[in-house]
């Protein structure tokens, strides 16, 4: 499911010896902008305080009370400074409201020919004072690209869109529920993680033994109407003409039970033991079901990679598009800034315009190809690329991550499974960082350029350690 919509709390700062009409003008500016973008704003009414601004401690209490009443709706707060503003009023509002959500500080620029007492703003200076007070109060906040900027400026609209992405990530990660289906493959120490570290960060994991999933699936009769409905759903999702009918039934059984597990436990994402037990004991791959869930904004990662699917979920929140778990798999010839991304595969359909349901040759070499029907085949074409990885560091007791951007290309690639060619600036430097810092071989990709959103959300509001590879804004 897509992230649920949220509202922005909006606070208009004011200071008594600056022109009050600037507050009314700012309110009109932002009301128009919110209507254009489709933002639901929660702010004081002009009847609640002088022009609906926050100037005194009493104003701060009124605004904080309004924000608290709408706590479940508000995903972030926008502080608007039409003039210098009252830094104590802004800080008091946020302290009293106690929302613990991202905050964006905007200040209006002055006009050189209007620096008289009638139109003077001084928000350039006031914004510094507001930030100083928030820093003293240990309230994290985000900044606009330009120190002062009008809401009509294209850079501010980009800043606001980025901020909304940050709000989605922070709101979504806090309280996310992940299902871990089965044990990790025995040979994959790389996907170990600390459930306790995740829990301390508001991320819960619900576990289930794979035998319970396979046992429930085996009990569903071939004539069950849910089987027929799920097979129709699979055929509508991807080209399944090559799949033997008996294997379609097995795939459908798995899909039904996984859907039930997700719904019953109110899960946002799953990480599944995708080999070797499911092939040996159920006779098919679970890839198609995982792909369908990911396409439906319920991301699913293979090999019980819990922090991998957490990364998928975060990227999905940032971009409002599905993510995929992939391997940093192969060099691309002698080209140092390109590599092959691969899995066998369960990528969301959004990545695979030529999607087909086939079997998995690599797993089939030991498990029998007849037991691996349900794997997807398809090539991801050229698209923007955001990549990254979240991991739990048990030694230091923290969550760490890396993020970056690049491109997927249309370079020639002759292989099978789910595949893509990635071009990443200074790829060799990135690989050194991944290896030296002990990150997993799994990485998450998303068809967007949203690394900046992820870094801001992870570092400023979630308190995680982040390496932003070749950050263009650094």
Describe this protein's structure.
GO terms for molecular function: L-fucose isomerase activity. Keywords: Carbohydrate metabolism, Isomerase. It holds the Pfam family Fucose_iso_C. Residues 341-468 form the L-fucose isomerase C-terminal domain. The protein has helices at 21-37, 57-69, 87-97, 123-136, 154-173, 195-200, 210-218, 225-237, 245-264, 277-282, 287-295, 306-319, 361-367, 427-436, 451-461; strands at residues 7-12, 40-42, 74-81, 103-107, 142-143, 177-181, 204-208, 269-272, 300-302, 323-332, 335-343, 356-358, 375-379, 383-393, 398-409, 418-423, 442-446, 465-468. It is α/β, with parallel strands linked by helices and 474 residues long. The chain has two domains: 7-173, Rossmann fold (3-Layer(aba) Sandwich); 177-468, Alpha-Beta Barrel (L-fucose Isomerase, Chain A, domain 3). The radius of gyration is 25 Å and the shape is elongated. It starts with 6 loop residues before the first strand and ends in a 6-residue tail after the last strand. The model has no long low-confidence stretch (mean pLDDT 96).
Distance between the termini: 34 Å
Unreliable stretches (pLDDT < 50, length at least 5) are none
- CATH fold name of the largest domain: L-fucose Isomerase, Chain A, domain 3
Task: Give a short account of the largest sheet.
Answer: 6 strands, antiparallel, barrel
CATH architecture of the largest domain: Alpha-Beta Barrel
> How many beta-strand runs?
18
> What is the C-alpha radius of gyration, as a whole number of Å?
25 Å
The averaged pLDDT comes out at 96
Oligomer: single chain
Q: Helix segment count?
A: 15
Number of domains: 2
Backbone structural class: alpha/beta
Binned strand content: 15-25%
The general outline is elongated
Q: At the first level of CATH, what is the class of the largest domain? A: Alpha Beta
């Amino acid at each position: 499911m897509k992230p649920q919509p949220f509202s922005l709390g909006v606070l208009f700062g004011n200071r008594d010896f600056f022109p009050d009409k600037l507050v009314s003008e700012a309110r009109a500016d932002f009301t128009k902008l919110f209507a254009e973008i489709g933002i639901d704003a929660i702010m004081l009414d002009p009847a609640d305080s002088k022009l609906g601004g926050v100037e005194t401690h009493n104003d701060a209490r009124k605004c904080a009370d309004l924000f608290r009443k709408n706590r479940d709706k508000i995903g972030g707060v926008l502080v608007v400074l039409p003039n210098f503003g009252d830094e104590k009023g802004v800080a008091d509002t946020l302290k009293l409201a106690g929302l613990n959500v991202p905050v964006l500080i905007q200040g209006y620029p002055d006009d050189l020919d209007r620096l008289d007492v009638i139109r003077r703003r001084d928000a350039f200076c006031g914004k510094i004072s507001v930030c100083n007070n928030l820093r003293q109060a240990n309230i994290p906040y985000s900044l606009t690209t330009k120190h002062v900027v009008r809401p009509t400026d294209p850079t501010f609209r980009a800043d606001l869109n980025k901020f909304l992405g940050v709000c989605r990530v922070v709101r979504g990660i806090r309280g996310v529920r992940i299902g871990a289906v089965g044990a990790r493959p025995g040979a994959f120490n790389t996907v170990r993680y600390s459930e306790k570290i995740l829990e301390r960060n508001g991320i819960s994991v619900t576990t289930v033994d794979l035998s319970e999933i396979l046992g429930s699936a085996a009990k569903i009769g071939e004539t069950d109407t849910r089987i027929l409905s799920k097979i129709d759903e699979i055929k509508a999702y991807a080209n399944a003409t090559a799949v033997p009918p008996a294997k379609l039934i097995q795939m459908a059984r798995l899909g039904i039970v996984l859907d039930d597990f997700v719904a019953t436990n109110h899960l946002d994402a799953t990480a599944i033991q995708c080999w070797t037990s499911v092939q040996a004991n159920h006779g098919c791959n679970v890839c198609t079901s995982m792909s369908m869930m990911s396409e439906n904004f319920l991301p699913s990662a293979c090999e019980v990679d819990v922090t991998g699917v957490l990364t998928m979920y975060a990227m999905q929140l940032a971009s409002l598009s599905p993510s995929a778990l992939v391997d940093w798999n192969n060099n691309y010839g002698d080209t140092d800034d390109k590599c092959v991304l691969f899995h066998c595969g369960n990528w969301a359909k959004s990545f695979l315009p030529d999607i087909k349901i086939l079997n998995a040759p690599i797993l089939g070499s030991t498990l029998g190809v007849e037991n691996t029907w349900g794997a997807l085949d398809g090539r991801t074409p050229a698209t923007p690329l955001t990549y990254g990885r979240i991991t739990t560091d048990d030694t230091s007791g923290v969550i760490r991550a890396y993020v970056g951007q690049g491109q997927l290309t249309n370079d020639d690639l002759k292989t099978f499974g789910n595949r893509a060619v990635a071009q990443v600036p200074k790829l060799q430097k990135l690989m050194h960082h991944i290896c030296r810092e002990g990150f997993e071989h799994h990485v998450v990709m998303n068809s967007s350029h949203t690394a900046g959103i992820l870094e801001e959300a992870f570092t400023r509001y979630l308190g995680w350690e982040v390496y932003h590879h070749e950050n263009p804004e650094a």
